Inverse folding.
C-alpha cells in the first residue's frame, strides 16, 4: 500500500471513529479493507483511495470505518464490573432514587449487545427489588451492522459459552434454527440499541445514572479520550457511576471523574460524595460456562 493511501485511510478512520492506526498496522488495514473494495466493485485499495479523493462517498466511508472498528465482546466480560453493579452500585442507587424509582444505564460501544444484555439479566435477577421501577438500558455503537445484530439478540454456541453461566442460558435464552441461541423477549425488550458515535453526537437525551464505557478509550489518542470523558461527565448526575476497562484510567485524562479506592475501573464524578467500600464483593455473578450444544431433539430454553 502506498504511504499516501495509508494516510488517507487512517485519517478517515481516525476522524470518524477515533481509532488511531499507526504505520505498523498497515497489514491490518489492508486485510480488512480488501473486502470493502470488492463490495464496492473496486479492483484494489489504490482504486478505493482514488474514489475517496474524488467523490467522498458516504456509503464507502462508512464501510471503511466499520471494517476497522473492533467488535470484540462477550457476556459478563471481566466479571468484576458486573458484580460491582449488582452488589454495590444497584443497591446504592435503589436508595438514592427511591423517590422517583427510575434508573438509566448506558452501554457505550455496545458492539453486538452482550454487555447490555448482561446488565439486563442482572436487573431481571433483581426483579423483586426493582418492582414498579422504570429501568432504561441503552446500548449504542458506531457500527450499523453491530446494532442490527444486537437488536436481534441471536448468538452462536461459541458466543453463549463465553462468560454466560449455564443457569442464565436456561433461564433467559431459547435455542433457534442453525444451532443459535436467542435472548428471550422479556430481556430483549429491556434494552434499546441505537447507532451512536462517541466522537460526535451520542444520540442520547437526559442523564444516565450508570455508564459502562469499557475497552474503547484504549484505541483513542489523549485529546479524544479527554473529549469523550468530559462529554460523558456532562450527561451524568453527581452521584452517578462510570465503569471503564481494566487497562483504562481517567488519571491524567480528565478531571471530571475520580477513582474509587480499591475498585479498579470504577469512577464517580469529581463532586460525588457517594461511598463504595474498598472491599466490596468481587465474586463473579457467573458460576459455570454454558453447556455444549444440545441434541436436536432436545428443546432448549432461551
Amino acid at each position: 500500500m502506498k504511504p499516501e493511501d495509508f494516510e488517507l485511510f487512517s485519517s478517515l478512520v481516525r476522524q470518524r471513529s477515533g481509532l488511531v492506526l499507526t504505520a505498523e498496522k498497515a497489514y491490518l488495514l489492508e486485510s480488512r479493507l480488501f473486502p470493502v473494495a470488492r463490495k464496492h466493485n473496486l479492483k484494489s485499495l489504490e482504486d478505493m483511495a482514488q474514489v475517496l479523493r474524488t467523490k467522498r462517498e458516504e456509503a464507502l466511508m462508512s464501510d471503511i470505518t466499520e471494517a476497522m472498528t473492533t467488535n470484540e465482546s462477550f457476556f459478563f466480560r471481566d466479571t468484576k464490573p458486573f458484580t460491582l453493579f449488582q452488589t454495590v452500585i444497584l443497591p446504592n442507587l435503589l436508595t438514592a432514587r427511591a423517590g422517583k424509582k427510575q434508573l438509566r444505564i448506558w452501554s457505550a460501544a455496545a458492539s453486538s449487545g452482550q454487555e447490555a444484555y448482561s446488565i439486563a439479566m442482572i436487573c431481571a435477577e433483581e426483579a423483586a427489588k426493582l418492582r414498579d421501577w422504570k429501568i432504561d438500558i441503552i446500548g449504542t455503537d458506531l457500527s450499523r451492522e453491530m446494532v442490527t445484530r444486537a437488536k436481534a439478540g441471536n448468538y452462536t454456541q461459541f458466543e453463549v459459552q463465553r462468560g454466560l453461566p449455564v443457569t442464565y442460558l436456561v433461564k433467559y435464552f431459547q435455542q433457534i434454527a442453525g444451532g443459535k441461541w436467542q435472548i428471550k423477549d422479556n430481556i430483549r425488550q429491556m434494552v434499546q440499541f441505537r447507532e451512536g458515535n462517541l466522537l460526535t453526537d451520542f444520540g442520547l437525551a437526559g442523564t444516565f445514572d450508570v455508564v459502562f464505557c469499557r475497552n474503547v478509550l484504549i484505541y483513542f489518542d489523549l485529546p479524544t479520550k479527554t473529549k469523550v470523558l468530559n462529554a460523558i461527565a456532562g450527561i451524568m448526575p453527581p452521584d452517578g457511576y462510570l465503569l471503564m476497562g481494566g487497562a483504562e484510567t481517567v488519571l491524567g485524562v480528565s478531571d471530571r471523574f475520580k477513582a474509587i479506592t480499591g475498585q479498579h475501573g470504577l469512577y464517580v464524578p469529581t463532586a460525588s460524595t457517594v461511598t463504595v467500600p474498598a472491599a466490596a464483593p468481587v465474586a463473579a455473578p457467573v458460576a459455570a460456562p454454558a453447556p455444549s450444544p444440545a441434541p436436536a431433539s432436545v428443546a432448549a430454553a432461551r
Notes: The beta strands are 102-107, 134-141, 154-155, 173-175, 181-183, 191-195, 210-212, 241-243, 257-259, 266-269. Residues 80-269 form a domain with the Rossmann fold fold (CATH 3.40.50.150). The CA atoms of residues 259 and 267 lie 5 Å apart. Confidence is low (pLDDT under 50) at residues 287-302.
